[in-house]
Specification:
- This is Helix-turn-helix domain-containing protein.
- Keywords: DNA-binding, Transcription, Transcription regulation.
- The protein is about 45% helix and about 15% strand.
- With about 250 residues, it is of the alpha+beta class.
- Helix 1 packs antiparallel against helix 2, helix 3 packs across helix 5 and helix 7 packs across helix 8.
- The chain has a 5-stranded antiparallel beta sheet, with helices on one face.
- The protein has 2 domains: about 120 residues, no CATH class; about 120 residues, Arc Repressor Mutant, subunit A.
- It has 9 helices and 8 strands.
Amino acid sequence: MGDGAAYRIVRYRPDDPVPRGTGRLLLPDGGALALDGADLPPGTAALLPPAHPARPAGRVLALAIPVRELPPAAHGAVVLVDVSSGLGRIVADMARAVAAEAGALGVAEFDAACDRIAELLRMAVAGRAQRPPAPGNLAEVETVVRRYVRAHATDPGLTGRVMAQELGWSLRQIQLALQRAGTTPRALIREERLRLVRDRLRDPADRAVSITDLAHAAGFSSAGALSTAFRRRFGVSPRELRRGQTGTG
């Protein structure tokens, strides 16, 4: 690996400095991993937040991951990751393969491989943290999905399939939860985007922002797509609402 790369991957030694602005994925490298004097279950890795003082024991492979690439759950707490099966095992296998080939990789190649590892790690952690206790707990699924849509509605690439991937559920499970509430992933995303636009149209601070810019900022593909959906939902166009010609409910 080249100098100056954002990621680092090393065979861990107790005196290794912790790179600033990074978390660390600690993988057992033959045998079990011990952290803060306690043995972790076999097949378990530990994801440490930035500046965490823990010093692991045993043979450990350490991948330093920039803060911006860490799962949200790992920003302030240690996250244990099952690397014995499923996506966690794929993450561990890829990290070990990159460590073995690091000397043959250029900086761009090394970073690209680590980006993919970090992406899969985020998925693995999100699935473990967000999955409801029972598959039939549709009310909890609906609550988490609505919260997720509120936080990500402005992303033009947001779809039901993307939500399912990020939250660790099946698309069918999300569809069933929203069907129970009388909506669909697509309709929920559109409704949240329309509410965002409506609120900005009513805000004097945004009066100088064009309808086109409001549309793109809210995740719509064009001003036309926004206007069609907005009139269907609220009975007026965005421009009419801004001019104050007609109120909306």
